[in-house]
Every structure is written in C-alpha cells, then in structure tokens.
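Margin note from the TA: students keep mixing up input and output lines. Inputs are the sequences; the output is the structure of the whole complex. Example:
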Amino acid sequence: MKSVFIGCGAYLPQRSLSNAELAKTVDTSDEWIVARTGISNRHIAADGELTSDLAYNAAVEALAAAGMAATELDLIVLATATPDETFPATATTVQARLGVAGIPAFDVQAVCSGFIYALAVADNFIKAGQARNVLVIGAETFSRILDWEDRTTCVLFGDGAGAVVLRAEATNGDAGTAQRGIMSTHLHADGRHHDMLYVDGGPSSTGTAGFLRMRGKEVFRHAVGNLASVVGEALEANNLDADAIDWLVPHQANQRIIDHTVKKLKLPSEKVVLTVARHGNTSAASVPLALNEAVSDGRIKQGDVILMEAMGGGFTWGAVLARW
Ligand code: UT7
C-alpha cells in the first residue's frame, strides 16, 4: 500500500500583524526582522478562536479538495504543540465537529516537525493496512505561548493550519496511482537539547501554560546541520539526486535556514515554496500551509516529486519524500 495525497486545505486567521505594528510594542524594526528572518507578516488568531477552529477549517477544505465525505475517513492525526486543552486531544474536537464518531483520532506532538511526524504515522497506518483514508492536520496558535515582551521570540511566530487527505492505493494498482504517494519518511529526535527551545510551563511542571523560550543562535546552527543531513538521507534512501526534486516544501522558520538547505541541495530558487515572509513560523502548520499554497496556485502538479522537511523543539527533525 502507498499513501497517496488526494487533497489539501489550509486556514489562516483573519488578523494579520506586520513588523511595523510589532515595532510599536517591542524594541524591534522591520529592517531587523526582514534581514534576520525574511518575515514581514504573520496571522494571529482572534480571541476565542482555538487551534481546533483553525484545524477544522483546514480539514473541511482538504476534504472538499479530495472530493471525500468526512464519513469516509478512518483516522485523524493532528500535529500541534498548542492544543486547545491539556486533554482531550484536539484531534477529537475536530472529529466531533466533522461528525465522524468512532474512528481513531489523536494528536502528535513534535513541535515544528509535527506535521512530518504525523505524515509518517499516517503512512505507517496505511502501509500496515489499518487505515485507508486518513486526515492529517498541522494546526497551531503559537500567539498564545509567546512572551510578547521578548523581542527575540515574539517576532518569529504566527498562527495557522493546514491539512491533507491521504488515501491507501495498492502499489500494483491502475490509473498510475502506484507511482504516486509517499516514497519514504525519515524521523529523528535528540532530547539532549531540551533547553535550547522549550515552553517554560505545563501541567506537570508549573501548572501554567508557560511561554516559549529559545536560544536562537544554537537552534539555527542545529537546524542547518540536521536539515542538510535528513534531506540527504531521504534522497539516498530512494536512490535519487537532488535534480529529481520538483519542489522543496520546507518548514518556514527562517529564510536563512531555508537558503542553507537550498544551497546544500543546489536547487534553483524557483523550486522552493516560500511562505515565511507572510506567515512567519507557524510550527506544525507551516509545511501544510506552504504545500496547500503551491497546490492551489497550480505550481505543484500531479506526479511532481516533493521534498518536505522540518526541525523543531526537542530537538525533533525529519523529512518526507513524495510524488504528488
Ligand atoms: O522552528 C524551529 C525553531 N526556530 C528556529 O528555527 C529559529 C532559529 N534561529 C533563528 O532564526 C535566529 O537565530 C534568530 C532570528 C532567532 C536570531 O537571529 P540571529 O542572527 O541569530 O541574531 P542574535 O540572536 O545573535 O541577535 C543579534 C542581535 C542581538 O543584539 P546584540 O546582543 O548583538 O546587541 C539581539 O539582542 O539582535 C538582537 N535582537 C533583536 N534586535 C531587534 C534579537 N531579536 C531582535 C529583534 N529586533 N526582534
């Protein structure tokens, strides 16, 4: 069995927050943020708008694009580090709103690598024959865990959601589907680096939600190294050269991190999907948001080879190579 992408969707909260607006509340500037990160704008969830609301909207769009009724789903996997509540899983809230009681639904927590992890989990359910139609969502409201007085972090992140629908197709099937779908997934973690990127709260430690804390320079250095290594691993596992990649859909944390990966792969910049300038870092939502944009505007076409990658707190990192 192969996991074939049959639809995607996304949702961004209406309110957008520019660098200029941020510069009115913290000691920063549009010049600094653009030069160091490539970010100009990010979206911020409205009061009372929850991660599950963003996720639900993206899911509805993905199901419509797939031409699939929610009742045909047999698994929901939702990647988030900003769940509505400590429990139940935000995936179950989305499930209830979709009206599909009974099927398994759970969250995956790998911070910015969450969507890559969730895709790998879904792919393994499909390959094991335990699911046929899977909804995979990445959704975050990082605005709720930012210290809005800390200029070193609050300028970097935004809110949003993206979703895809995967369908199991027999590798010996007809209609060319055997050639499409996820080719391989590659996951890594190294918990020794907890203190470089974490939230200083939680139900078991402080009893509060806490705020995101990051040692940006160290995270940057590890991100560049780990992403270079995992994209190489994904290509090698499939006996492919970087020329085989039609689209790189990277995690959108920092334009300069993406530039390093592009340089390592020697990819022409036209093959890179970029949303970081407009969305900032939306953590687990960033890859599916970028994917949806390039599919919707017709850049990614059926049969294209796409390489997705991400790195985040934990550290966690990973890549998925697929044929759209
Ligand atoms: O999703 C994965 C998680 N996150 C990441 O991948 C982020 C990885 N890290 C980064 O993207 C970069 O390290 C940052 C964008 C966070 C920071 O860029 P940098 O080039 O590493 O800057 P820096 O932290 O070394 O700071 C340089 C200077 C410092 O001032 P001094 O000490 O040189 O006087 C900072 O205090 O810039 C200052 N600074 C700012 N200035 C204006 C830090 N944040 C700001 C700001 N506005 N927002």
